[in-house]
Specification:
The structure holds two protein chains of two kinds. Chain A is built from five helices and seven strands, in the order αβββαβαβαββα. Chain A has helices at residues 2-32, 77-93, 109-119, 132-136, 164-174, and strands at 48-50, 56-58, 66-72, 98-105, 125-128, 144-148, 154-159. A five-stranded mixed beta sheet of chain A has the order 5-4-3-6-7. In chain A, strands 1-2 form a two-stranded antiparallel sheet. The longest helix of chain A is centred in the N-terminal third of the chain and has 31 residues, at 2-32. Chain A is elongated, with a radius of gyration of 22 Å. The two termini of chain B are 26 Å apart. Chain B is built from 13 helices and 23 strands. In chain B, 30% of the residues lie in helices and 31% in strands. In chain B, the strands form six sheets. A six-stranded antiparallel beta sheet of chain B has the order 4-5-21-22-3-23. In chain B, α3 (54-63) packs across α6 (125-154) and α6 packs antiparallel against α9 (215-232). Classes of the chains: A alpha/beta, B alpha+beta. The interface between A and B is large, with 46 and 49 residues.
Amino acid sequence: MEKKKKRLVIRTIILAVLVLAIGYTVYGTATKDKVELIAVGSEAPDFTLVDLNGETHKLSDYKGQGVFLNFWGTWCKPCEKEMPAIDRQYKIYKDQGVQTLAVNIAQTDFEVQSFVDRYDLTFPVVIDKTKSVMTAYNVGQLPATLLIDPDGKVVKIITGEMTEEKIASYMELVKPK
Amino acid sequence: MENIICACGHSNPYGTKLCEKCGRPLTEEGKETKVVDMRYDGMAIRSKTYNKTFIDKIWNFFSSVKVGITLIIITLVAASIGTILPQEMYVNAPEANKAEYYEKVYGWFGKFYNSLGLSDLYSTVWFQVLVGMLAISIIVASLDRGIPLHKSLKNQRVKRHESFMKRQRIIAEGQVQNPDATLDKVEQKMTQLKYKVRRDGSALLAERGRFARYGPYINHVGLIIFLAGVMLRLVPGFHVDETIWIREGETRAIPGMDGYFIKNNEFTLETHDNKPQGEQLAQGVNVMAKNYQTDVTLYKQPEGALPGDLDNLEKVKDYSIRVNHPLKENGFALYQMNYRLNELKQMNFNLVSKANEEEALGQIEIDLTNPKKEYDLGNGSSVEILVYTPDFSGFENGEPQTKTSIPNNPAFLFRMKTPETPKGEVSFVEIMKPPLEPLGENKYRMKFAGAETRDSSNFTIRKDSTVPILFVGGIIFMIGVVIGSYWNHRRLWLQVEPDGRVLMAAHVNKNMFSMKKDLDAVTSFAELPQYEDQLEKPEDAEKSEKRGIKKKEGDSTL
């Protein structure tokens, strides 16, 4: 009887391991080709970038605050459209503990500065000159927005244009309680 | 599911065909046949022994050879269907238009093929589940058969029951003069023939090439390792296949290679300086490339540095990446894949008076990677860039728009100040077009005065840590195949009673011819009675002897 029990346990373990391996393979293949940003719920990769005023922004310095992290480029029309709305909401939420950080993808200072001047943007705009932050976040399409809670976890990822209403609700989402 | 008690008193597990101890056939079927089935040496196949719980039922399903063969056939058919038309990843069409591509190129069949998902067959869930089930079948069936077989071969007894001996394919029976001398002689001859000989009283067992029985199992182990290697490609870190475009002078983070940066110092395209000839003429090729080369510098961030932190980059090495000469570092390889020539890098303009275009008030050089806001020409004149669009695509609400961030079609809105026009004149300059003057006619204009270009290189970044695993799996697989194909397990049982009655039996899992050769040798050396092949009809033997052809023999016992 003891022997039979042992055999059943061994069989169960072997089959379970094999089924898990197949499940992992199927899942892995299904998600392989999708351009996925980092996973929701995971720790947002820390980074450090310099803004147009020469100030360094390190993501982990904003622990305790919610972060509205936006990847953009001047050539990207949806980015251009949502920028003024983001700025208006930034002004409302910055005093409530939500920081906005716009990461430009490897453009020239001149282009980024002219864009900021044209729309009179007040939130910090950093330039990812080597695309290393873009790579770390696996950003494929612009605009891409990540909402990071005060604990540094990614709460939500939005790819594509956002309405002002949505932007406000997202900032509300990561506001420190 | 009770144990079977053999006549010799040994208790065998349910499903056993030949008694583990003495070799007597235990099934009715076995008792009736002339030659017993020696597959797995008569051991009970494990799955046949218990069949109670749900897990046992699944286990038994996969243990079945019929199921295994069915899975192999289905997999083979499915895999070959995937080769009828090219798979999606090899089709030269944008992701969104692949469905149309199949219909356009292959007609209704292409549409059908694509709509069934056969154009990406190897990534489908059902195909992977199928291969996975095949893997389960291989593992379960091997465990179920291999372990009992191993036990049986390890615990072989020298003395077997007469009913076992008589049901072997090769048997001999007769009388000898001197029993002990016969046993000694057989031992001597069989040892000489590289058999391992064991004796137990009046019984003798000579055995050679037992490891051949393990060939199929070794082969299965190789297959499983191979499949595991393929699966590991999906585990992050084991397999990287990324691509990067990088212009001369740029430094970029390498995707897939965390913490590494690459700088493109220079791209060189060399061509053969020959007169077109032969095939080159026929195909209308003017120049032939001799070398594509990118001189790069590889940098690494110090340990623990964050993405975006470019201070203290450590230089790893300088290297010239050429075709077939990838840059290798830390298991990664960067291959030269593509290039683009002559992207604008710098544009020069002269500030000239329309009245006298020959005489310039000064030249500005705009570095497109870092345009300045204002260029002072010194003599009271200056040029200010109000707007720069790298890839001008038209106006929208009076604002110039850019399509991309790449300087394919740069355009500038300048404000030119001269001592004559201190308030400044505004001019919109697009490459190869007359300037637009939105605020009225100007006295001055920016005259194009040359440009500098740069090239960009395209690399793919590859890492495949699974290659050694695939390699090991493949080698083990081949070793198993070779062992199973070129070696065979030969056994000879001999029992001589004190009165001189001798009983002999022989078994080989394949290649009966080699066994018979050994038998002939030992029979004549030890003067044993002539053996008989119970499966060979007398006329067949004559025929094959006449023609001198050896039939494919043996029962292909695993």
